[in-house]
């Protein structure tokens, strides 16, 4: 043990050192060596280190040491975690120490029984593991507040996650309320690597002094980027998995990497990808489990335990596994597709290794050129410590509205200035003005959530305060869900969040659920249902929404542009993609195949004689109504520029303009009246200072803003007052609440979460000053088309076509039809399609001219039988005769075709006339017509 190692543990008392020896802690880990000295001295400290490096013990050993020497009457320390699953882990990890040291450790969250809560209030444990929301509840209980007066230490785990959310903003005020009770408690934050540790430290301490102890993670991470090469065995694997060789190569590479290591975490960016990839591993009977937030708690615990026990060699997971849940030792991490952000890569890869400070190893498996270049940039930036900031939520007004009633409920009558002083001590609210907070007090008074005594300038409880506080312990908004139903079978396939439906869903749009791609046919807001049909050929479709994408930062997208800029002159000089790729090998961690494959796209761009979109050049391309502005500025900047373009072009055309963005492209669907020169003019002449105003005006009538406004207003108690008993329209909501704190907060939130006005304005400035080039190209380019495959990998449902066809068959056979003889008009029967004879004939007159009608077509029967017919009845009769003619020629096949939804005699004749090799193709064509009808139904009804 070195002198530095010894020095770390000598800051602890004899009792705790004895526990260290008993537990087998002979050598401190890197964070323990750095952080135990300031923590033992009682300093507020932010510890930045990877998951699994002993951060918990780093924070808690000095806390144990203090509590052993000064046992509290109430709670001595709070350990706050953002996830309940972490509560369970922390309790298990801390209980041994508690038992050895004679300290009681307990856990409290939403599922804690009433009996257990009562026990904790009567006899508080020395250390309580809890969540931010449960701390909010504890601050209002009389006996619990007394017990909280003894708190001397608060540990906030995963503080970087909380700092970037409204949950964290709420917690920051909660900590100041705790400070008012307990005085100068020590604050300890445990964080993954962030780009702005000072800001996270200030968030933790409320602007007070904070020691920062950071482990350089980048130098301890070994990441390789690999794009799978298609091998001969992938063709066989593709047959087994009912997919293409390219997708099979992804599965095979991941399978091989898992086999090369003892225990591997496989991170993916969406739950849909987790399910789709997981189903492939299940098909191959590989020992790989699935872990994501949509699974039940029991299912998650089961795979965690099996992975820890070595029964599973790999665990396929989403961000659910980023936050330190204990699954035992991990020796390798695979990231499937770009992790989108440096901080996310470090957090994920950092889960591997940590035995004696060993290097964390990981592989990013990429799927297309954008993905590869992005992953290369992120891997390089991770190695060099260029991490994104946490982006603290500054001044969330709905959090202020949430905390004012909580303060009154816990303290009783309170002077407004005292409440303002507590709130503005919290770091995210340091710049919120007294005037703004008083406006919020007025709104809460009008909504009867608290009472404002103007004469004494005090706030008091009302009959609604207690109910409001306990209904709003969390800043996570309550969202309604829509059921998703397959129109082919009528069965429910899942649910969609209200936000998806509000922001993205409309008939014709494509999305992914359950690892499969679906097209929306109809949305029923009253019933809360979305009717969909599966995509027959996913290879030819692009999802219009592929989940809540992790935004790619401007710096990462800019480096992708720089890579293109370096490659372009070499490729233009005739150097091939393989040689250019080798040039990058010294700077970026990838093999020759991966670099060559990515550079081939750039080679195609040069061959197409199109300008290359780079960090310093935008390229505008057009084909028909589709205009693409290639711009390497990241999600938020491109979204902002896209909104400016769509708003101004829409205003000019007098109609809406379609908009889709990714980190490298802004794609517009414009009316024919819009010329390419109109787009160039907007880019070259729009005042950069007007960007924010244009975007805000564009937002004013939008469903996206109305959705946010409804959520914010609920926290103010305003929505209830305005809604009355009925559902409130978006237009009414937006007009009723304009020029209120709720509206200001909804706008602030959209700008914070989705947009980057400052960078978008700078792009226009640089374009207009000539600092940025603007090239044009007629038609689509290889790079411009590069985003069109995004999100498709692995999403073709295995054998979905066959199962869907079988479902359609069964449904049509069970449908009822009316058979009517159009010769004698006498015979009419209602029956199931499956009971119809191969060649139906009338039992009365023997005719085979039998019309097949919908089961509710009694009006048609009356029309056929009527002696004198009006114009409408003539049309009905003609349709019945066409149906009878088709049945006479094609028998039961015609009955089946016309029983389908929206398929009349004309379409049935088209379906029947096609030459086919099998019955499945017949039903496939029927389904195609049904889908066409579903998409266009609103035009016919």
Automatic annotation (TrEMBL):
Gene Ontology MF: a single term: DNA binding
Domain Helicase C-terminal: 253-398
Region Disordered: start-end pairs: 774-793
Domain of life: Archaea
CDD domains reported in the protein's UniProt record: DEXHc_LHR-like (cd17922)
GO terms under biological process: DNA repair
Name listed for the protein in its UniProt record: Helicase
The species this protein was found in: Natronococcus pandeyae
Lineage of the organism: Archaea, Methanobacteriati, Methanobacteriota, Stenosarchaea group, Halobacteria
């Amino acid at each position: 043990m070195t002198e530095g190692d010894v020095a770390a543990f000598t800051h602890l008392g004899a009792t705790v050192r004895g526990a260290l020896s008993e537990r087998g802690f002979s050598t401190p880990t890197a964070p323990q060596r750095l952080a135990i000295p300031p923590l033992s001295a009682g300093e507020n400290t932010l510890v930045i280190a990877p998951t699994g490096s002993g951060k918990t013990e780093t924070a808690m050993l000095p806390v144990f040491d203090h509590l052993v020497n000064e046992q509290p009457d109430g709670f001595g320390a709070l350990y706050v975690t953002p996830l309940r699953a972490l509560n369970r882990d922390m309790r298990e990890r801390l209980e041994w120490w508690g038992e050895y040291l004679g300290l009681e450790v307990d856990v409290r969250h939403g599922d804690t029984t009433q009996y257990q809560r009562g026990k904790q209030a009567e006899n508080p444990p020395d250390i309580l593991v809890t969540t931010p929301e449960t701390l909010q509840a504890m601050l209002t209980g009389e006996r619990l507040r007394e017990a909280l007066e003894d708190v001397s230490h608060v540990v906030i785990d995963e503080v970087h996650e909380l700092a970037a959310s409204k949950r964290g903003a709420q917690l920051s005020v909660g900590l100041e309320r705790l400070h008012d009770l307990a005085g100068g408690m020590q604050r300890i934050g445990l964080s993954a690597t962030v780009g702005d540790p000072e800001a996270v430290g200030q968030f933790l301490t409320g602007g007070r002094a904070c020691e920062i102890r950071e482990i350089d993670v980048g130098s301890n991470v070994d990441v390789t980027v690999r794009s799978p090469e298609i091998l001969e065995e992938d063709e066989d694997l593709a047959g087994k998995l009912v997919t293409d060789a390219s997708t099979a190569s992804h599965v095979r590479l991941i399978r091989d990497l898992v086999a090369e290591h003892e225990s591997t975490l496989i991170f993916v960016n969406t739950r849909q990808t987790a399910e789709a990839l997981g189903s492939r591993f299940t098909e191959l009977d590989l020992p790989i489990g699935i872990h994501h937030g949509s699974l039940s708690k029991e299912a998650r615990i089961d795979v965690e335990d099996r992975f820890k026990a070595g029964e599973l060699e790999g665990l396929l997971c989403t961000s659910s596994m980023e936050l330190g849940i204990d699954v035992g030792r991990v020796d390798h991490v695979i990231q499937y597709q770009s992790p989108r952000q440096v901080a996310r890569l470090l957090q994920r890869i950092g889960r591997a290794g940590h035995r004696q400070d060993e290097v964390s190893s990981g592989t990013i498996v990429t799927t297309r050129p954008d993905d590869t270049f992005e992953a290369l940039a992120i891997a390089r930036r991770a190695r060099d410590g260029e991490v994104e900031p946490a982006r603290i939520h500054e001044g969330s007004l709905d959090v202020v509205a949430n905390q004012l009633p909580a303060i009154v409920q816990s303290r009783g009558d309170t002077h407004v200035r005292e409440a303002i002083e507590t709130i503005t001590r919290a770091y995210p609210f340091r710049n919120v003005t007294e005037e703004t907070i008083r406006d919020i007090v007025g709104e809460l008074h009008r909504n009867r959530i608290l009472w404002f005594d103007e004469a004494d300038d005090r706030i008091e409880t009302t009959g609604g305060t207690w109910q409001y506080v306990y209904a709003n312990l969390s800043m996570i908004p309550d969202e309604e869900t829509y059921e998703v139903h397959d129109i082919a079978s009528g069965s429910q396939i899942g649910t969609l969040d209200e936000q998806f439906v509000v922001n993205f869903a409309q008939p014709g749009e494509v999305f992914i659920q359950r690892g499969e791609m679906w097209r929306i046919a109809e949305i029923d807001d009253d019933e809360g249902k979305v009717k969909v049909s599966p995509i027959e050929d996913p290879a030819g479709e692009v999802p219009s929404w592929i989940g809540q994408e992790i935004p790619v930062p401007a710096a990462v997208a800019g480096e992708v542009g720089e890579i293109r800029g370096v490659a372009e002159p070499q490729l233009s000089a005739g150097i091939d993609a393989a040689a250019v790729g080798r040039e990058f090998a010294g700077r970026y961690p990838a093999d020759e195949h991966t670099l060559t494959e990515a550079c081939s796209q750039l080679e195609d761009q040069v061959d197409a004689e199109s300008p290359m979109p780079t960090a310093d050049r935008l390229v505008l391309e057009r084909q028909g109504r589709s205009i693409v502005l290639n711009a390497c500025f990241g999600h938020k900047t491109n979204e902002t520029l896209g909104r400016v373009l769509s708003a101004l072009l829409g205003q000019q055309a007098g109609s809406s303009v379609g908009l889709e963005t990714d980190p490298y492209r802004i794609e517009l669907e414009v009316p024919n009246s819009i010329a390419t020169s109109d787009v160039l003019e907007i880019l070259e002449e729009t005042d950069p200072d007007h960007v924010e105003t244009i975007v805000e005006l564009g937002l004013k009538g939008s469903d996206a803003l109305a959705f946010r406004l409804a959520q914010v207003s609920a926290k103010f108690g305003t929505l209830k007052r305005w809604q009355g008993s009925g559902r409130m329209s978006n237009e009414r909501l937006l007009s009723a609440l304009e020029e209120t704190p709720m509206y200001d907060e909804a706008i602030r939130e959209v700008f914070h979460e989705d947009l980057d006005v400052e960078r978008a304005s700078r792009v226009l400035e640089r374009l207009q000053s000539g600092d940025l080039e603007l090239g044009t190209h007629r038609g689509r380019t290889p790079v411009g088309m590069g985003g069109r495959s995004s999100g498709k990998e692995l999403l073709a449902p295995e054998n979905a076509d066959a199962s869907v066809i079988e479902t359609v068959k069964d449904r049509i056979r069970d449908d009822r039809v009316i058979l009517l003889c159009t010769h004698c008009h006498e015979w009419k029967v209602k029956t199931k399609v499956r009971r119809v004879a191969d060649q139906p004939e009338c039992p009365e007159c023997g005719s085979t001219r039998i019309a097949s009608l919908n089961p509710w077509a009694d009006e048609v029967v009356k029309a056929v039988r009527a002696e004198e017919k009006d114009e409408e009845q003539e049309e009905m009769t003609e349709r019945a005769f066409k149906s009878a003619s088709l049945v006479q020629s094609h028998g039961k096949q015609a009955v089946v075709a016309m029983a389908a939804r929206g398929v009349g005699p004309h379409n049935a004749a088209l379906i029947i006339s096609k030459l086919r090799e099998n019955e499945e193709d017949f039903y496939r064509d029927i389904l195609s017509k049904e889908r066409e009808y579903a998409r266009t139904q609103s035009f016919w009804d």
